[in-house]
Amino acid sequence: MNLIIFLLIGALAGWLAGVVMKGRGFGVIINIVVGVVGAWLGGWLLPKLGIAFGGTVGSFITAFVGAVILLAIIGLIKKA
C-alpha cells in the first residue's frame, strides 16, 4: 500500500512540477515519471541538506521539490 501512495504522490508532484516549470515539461506521462523519480531524489537530497518534512503533505512537498529539481536538470541537459 505504501508503494501505491508513493507512486500517486510522485505522479501528482510530477504533474504539478510540469505545470509550474512551464516550457520545461515533457508531457503528462513523462512528467509523472519524473515526479516519481523526483520523489525519490527529493527524499534522498533534502535530508542531506538538513530539510525534512513529515506526513503525507511533507511527502508531497519533498516529491514536488525533487521533481522540480529533476525537471530543471533535464531541461539543462536537453538544451546542451
UniProtKB/TrEMBL annotation:
<comment type="similarity">
    <text>Belongs to the UPF0410 family.</text>
</comment>
<dbReference type="Pfam" id="PF04226">
    <property type="entry name" value="Transgly_assoc"/>
</dbReference>
<dbReference type="InterPro" id="IPR007341">
    <property type="entry name" value="Transgly_assoc"/>
</dbReference>
<keyword id="KW-0472">Membrane</keyword>
<feature type="transmembrane region" description="Helical">
    <location>
        <begin position="53"/>
        <end position="77"/>
    </location>
</feature>
<dbReference type="GO" id="GO:0005886">
    <property type="term" value="C:plasma membrane"/>
</dbReference>
<keyword id="KW-1133">Transmembrane helix</keyword>
<feature type="transmembrane region" description="Helical">
    <location>
        <begin position="28"/>
        <end position="46"/>
    </location>
</feature>
<protein>
    <submittedName>
        <fullName>GlsB/YeaQ/YmgE family stress response membrane protein</fullName>
    </submittedName>
</protein>
<keyword id="KW-1003">Cell membrane</keyword>
<keyword id="KW-0812">Transmembrane</keyword>
